[in-house]
Known about the structure:
InterPro entries: CheY-like_superfamily, NreC/VraR/RcsB-like_REC, Sig_transdc_resp-reg_C-effctor, Sig_transdc_resp-reg_receiver, Tscrpt_reg_LuxR_C, WalR-like
Number of domains: 2
Pfam families: GerE (PF00196), Response_reg (PF00072)
Largest sheet: 6 strands, parallel
CATH superfamily of the largest domain: Response regulator
Radius of gyration: 18 Å
CATH topology of the largest domain: Rossmann fold
Protein name: Response regulator
Mean pLDDT: 87
Keywords: DNA-binding, Phosphoprotein, Transcription, Transcription regulation
Order of helices and strands: EHEHEHEHEHEHHHHH
Amino acid sequence: MIKVLIVDDHHVVRRGLLFFLKTQKDIQVIGEAKNGKEAIERIRKLQPDIVLMDLIMPEMDGIQATKHIKESYPHIEVLILTSFSDRDHVIPAIEAGAAGYQLKDIEPDELVASIRQIMRGENTIHPHATAQLMKIRERKEEPPHFYNPLTPREQDVLSELTKGKSNREIAASLFVTEKTVKTHISNIFSKLLVQDRTQAALYAVKHGLTKPSGN
């Protein structure tokens, strides 16, 4: 069972999420919280696998709570569920350690799929949030002779990854097998010294390793 803690300051939202998630055989909602501070108190006792986290809440917002959770309980993953897709919310949430970022207009089945993805150790980011990551720019210029350790094919895979595509979608786009994509992604993580897809996407954007949409 995937143990989930729901954190949102709106009772109606918590009730709706609870009602739907209870229908999933592999997901168990073990508690609720109405703000980040309360969430941290519940986590100490309940030890969920995944925290479904709102961003704008009283007392302690979702970004502060996410940072605290990842510092104190690195094995617990956070999936942001919010109405905000602007860079002022997306980037701090990812930098705080969130494994996923989804908007509240997400279809219920897609939300469940996101929870399962995170439980498998994957990242899941809404396309609108991914678009904000693509706009990241270095605060200062890169050294003039930046060394790119990736092969051309690895760069292709990385560019597709930054668009929020799954391994299957990347394979279809590049006309290779999913196994080949997995191998390339493993090599990318190793060469760039990153641990997950979100970190790889951030690195790609910062160092200009992405391609324009549509390529």
